[in-house]
Amino acid sequence: MIEALLAAPARLGAVRLLAVDGPSGAGKSTLAAEIVAGLRARGCRTELVSTDAFATWDDPVSWWPRLAGGVLRPLANGVDGAYRPMDWSTGTPRPGELVRVIVPEVLVLEGVSCGRTSVRPLLSHLCWISGGSAAERLAKAVARDGEAARAELGRWQRFERGWFAVDGTSRAADTRLSSETAPSPCVNGPLRIDQGNPFGSPRPG
Q1: Fewest Cβ atoms closer than 10 Å to its Cβ: which of 54, 98, 153, 160?
Q2: Cα pseudo-dihedral 110, 158, 180, 6, rounded to 10
Q3: Is the pTM of this model over 0.70?
């Protein structure tokens, strides 16, 4: 996947934009971290932004203009971006301290809805990771966030199921992965290419 990404044209100004999308508990954060490490090992200037920095239980996807205006638009113009991630330290999400995003060669977005229709013209590559069944993914997410988050995570799963059906994210992906099987040749970890072309805080997505 890294080779395909680097072979693809930059469409966010001079920046190649990779989106790692899929349902909650599928392994997006782990995969994105591996990709970022692989890119940096090649000497590629890479930044990572997670939708977890923006989404809340009550606002799963409509925060997008903050990401587009604070990060994507500046980078497209060759200017550093910035955003304020949600701070959950009080139990109620509120904007935290400013995080700057230096203009990179590659920007990796990861999280639910990061590969949405509106951003696809700017993407160099869209990766979908499916994870296991809904029950398996819920168990992973509860293990990650705690039993107290189970009800919200279940509600989130129901929302994202409808979102992905309408948005068609999986169908639009350049690479589709499953985290259920043997190691993949494209990244380290228990992933398999299923289809596609060859080229502490609660965490809603």
Answers
A1: 98
A2: -20
A3: yes
Rounded distance between C-alpha atoms, residue 44 and residue 107, angstroms: 10
Instruction: Please choose, from the candidates 114, 98, 160, 111, the residue with its C-alpha nearest in 3D space to the C-alpha of residue 134.
Output: 160
Q: Where are the beta strands (DSSP E) in 70-114?
A: 81-83, 86-87, 94-95, 99-101, 106-110
- Where do we find the tokens 């990650």? 144
Q: Residue 155 contacts by C-beta under 8 Å, 6 or more apart in sequence?
A: 57
| Encoded amino acid at 5, one letter | L
Q: Which tokens go with 50? A: 């997670």
Q: Please name the amino acid found at residue 58.
A: D
* Distance (Å, whole) CA 24 – CA 137: 7
Angle formed at CA 40 by CA 34 and CA 45, multiple of 5 degrees: 125
Q: What whole-number distance in Å separates Cα of residue 205 and Cα of residue 198?
A: 27
Which residue, 117, 128, 107, is CA-closest to 46? 107
Q: Which parts of the chain register pLDDT below 50?
A: 181-186, 188-202
DSSP letter (8 states) at residue 15: B
Q: How many residues does the chain have?
A: 205
Indicate left, alpha or beta for 154 from its phi (over 0: left) and psi (-120 to 50: alpha).
alpha
Q: Is 176 helix (H, G, I), strand (E, B) or coil?
A: strand
How many C-beta atoms surround the C-beta of residue 139 within 10 A? 15
